[in-house]
Amino acid sequence: MTVLRDKGGFWSPVISRIDHDGKPAVLKDYRTKNAVTRSLLAPTLVKREFEVLRHLDGVPGIPRAYAVLDGLALVTEFIDGRHPGKFEKLPDEVYRRLSATVRAMHDRDVVHLDLRQKKNIIIDGEMRPWLVDFANGVILRRGSPLRPLAAKLRDIDLGALTKFKARYWPHLLTDADRDAMKLQRFLRRFWPFSPHTDRAKDKTW
C-alpha cells in the first residue's frame, strides 16, 4: 500500500494505492477517521459514490468501482496519470474526449458537481482524460427531488468544462462560451461563501 493523500481533517479520507485482485487500485478509506465520520458521514458517502460509479460502468473516461470494504472504504480503478495543471500544453483531442465523457455522464443522468477542481481530472499516458472523485456526484433518478434541477446541475459541470477550455484550449472558445463565462464571472462576484479571484490564465478572452 502506498498513501497518495492524507489531508487529515475531520472527514477527509485517506487515499492510497493498493493491489486489488492483481490490479492496481485506489482505496478511499474512512476507517481511521473519528467516530462521528465513521458512523454518520462515511457510510453515506461511500455507498453513494459506489452507486454512481456502478451506474456509469462502461462509460469511457470513468474509472470502475471494484468494492466497498466494511461500509467505510471504496476501492476503484487506479488511473495512472496527471491532472491538467501538470502539462505545459494539451492536444485539442484531450478536450474533445473530455467533453465527450461529460456528455456521456450526463446521458446516464449523472452530474459530478466538482469538476472545477483540476485534481478531479486525470490525463493518462495516452492523453485520455478521466473523471475521478465522485464524492459529490448525484444520479438524477426519476422521482428524485433534484430531478427538476437537472438542467441547472448539468450547467455546473458544463461551466467547469468551459473554464478548462479557456485555460488550456482558448483557441477553441466560441462566442457562446465567452458570453457564458462573462455571466459566470459577474454572478460569482455576488456569491458570499468564497472570494472571487481572477486568474490571468482564465482571462484569455
What does this structure look like?
With 205 residues, the chain is α+β, with helices and mostly antiparallel strands. The protein folds into two domains: 2-77, Phosphorylase Kinase, domain 1 (2-Layer Sandwich), CATH 3.30.200.20; 81-202, Orthogonal Bundle (Transferase(Phosphotransferase), domain 1). Helices cover 34% and strands 20% of the residues. It contains four helices and ten strands. The strands form three sheets. It has a five-stranded antiparallel beta sheet. Helix 2 packs antiparallel against helix 3. The longest helix is centred in the N-terminal third of the chain and has 21 residues, at 35-55. The chain is globular, with a radius of gyration of 18 Å. The N and C termini lie far apart (45 Å). 26% of the residues are buried. Mean pLDDT is 90; it is low at 193-198.
Topology of this protein?
Elements: E1 2-6, E2 14-20, E3 23-29, H1 35-55, E4 65-69, E5 73-77, E6 81-82, H2 92-107, E7 110-111, E8 121-124, E9 129-131, E10 138-139, H3 150-168, H4 175-188
Antiparallel strand pairs: 1-2, 2-3, 3-5, 4-5, 6-8, 7-10, 8-9
